[in-house]
Give the backbone structure.
Amino acid sequence: MFVSASIGIALSYAGGSPEDLLSNADTAMYSAKANGKGRFEFFDEAMRERTVNRFEIETGLRKAIDERRLVLHYQPIISTVDERICGFEALVRWNHPERGMIPPGEFIPIAEESDLIILLGRWVLRESCRQMAEWHRRFSSVPPLTVNVNVSSRQLCDSHLLEDVEAALTESGLDPAFLALEVTESSIMGNAEQTLGTLDRLRAMNVRLEIDDFGTGYSSLSYLQRLPFDTLKIDRSFVRDLSAGSDSLDITKAIVEMAHSLRLEVIAEGVETEDQLCQLRELGCNYVQGFLFSKPIPSEAAPSLYPKTREYGLLSAESAPLAVCELG
Ligand code: C2E
Ligand code: MG
Ligand code: MG
């Protein structure tokens, strides 16, 4: 057996009780583990702040789920062919009593370290299916839209995911064909054999499956071929750097061609300019999503753009790109 040690060191010159000193050393030890193990780290104030912040987020989030303080905002996904909305991506926010709307980047990574992500994900699934089913009933004269829901790697490995998806669909009455689950490359490739079964079963339920943030993680091409995906979302880092002659243009072109030859549709994320839209259309990208059309907006605001854009297309409407609600 080879044993390695991670060491946390705290100094007592700042005063405080022996318990504080031990607790600080403990915090530094966890930091040493998180930063690669087999090393030592000294405790500092920033470490304490991070720990307190994490703790506050974790306990606050648990309460927020119970008290229904999470909200979903919806960002339209638009077809490059006719510039019409085909669906919305549901993106969670935390409506904090003191801090206002907290973006997911601040709490999802913390939720992902415990079972909190399972509770949060279950709520997101239920709420987004409920909302989309309601829109389907309300706007029954227009073709139904799809709702995209992000699923984290921990959820994907959780044995209850299938039940949760089934429950969300049954409760809401949403047709499974209008639910798309987004998973990142890394969360699949990390344990591909295990997730393959789950993904196959989801596919058998007729739920759509999409690869999120494609190009930022690592993918095994043989798995890409075997996994039952319908769509691949090109990460916005490639879209941002799209300009004639750049590497991103070549990479994006290659991704679109590869996806199409695997019979996958392609969504480009983070489209902010007309120029990017034109290039993506030329490359044959099927859908786009980004601030050029709309930021993620609250559910109350979505219906106002829903039937109109469906009828006229977004960009061909005379108005400038959609009025948007800023995230607080
Ligand atoms: P994502 O799934 O890749 O979602 C797209 C993110 O890009 C969203 O950020 C969206 O607001 C942002 N975005 C869209 N268009 C543009 C653009 O044109 N320019 C720029 N700069 N950004 C754009 P958001 O809402 O902050 O979400 C961040 C990430 O948090 C998401 O990335 C997703 O990974 C995660 N997330 C959000 N909601 C959920 C959820 O319900 N469950 C889980 N597991 N993760 C979620
Ligand atoms: Mg996503
Ligand atoms: Mg993404």
Observations:
- Residues 310-328 have pLDDT under 50 and may be disordered.
- The longest strand covers residues 85-96.
- The CA atoms of residues 53 and 219 lie 33 Å apart.
- The pocket of magnesium ion (ligand 2) is lined by residues 89, 150, 182, 212 (CB under 6 Å).
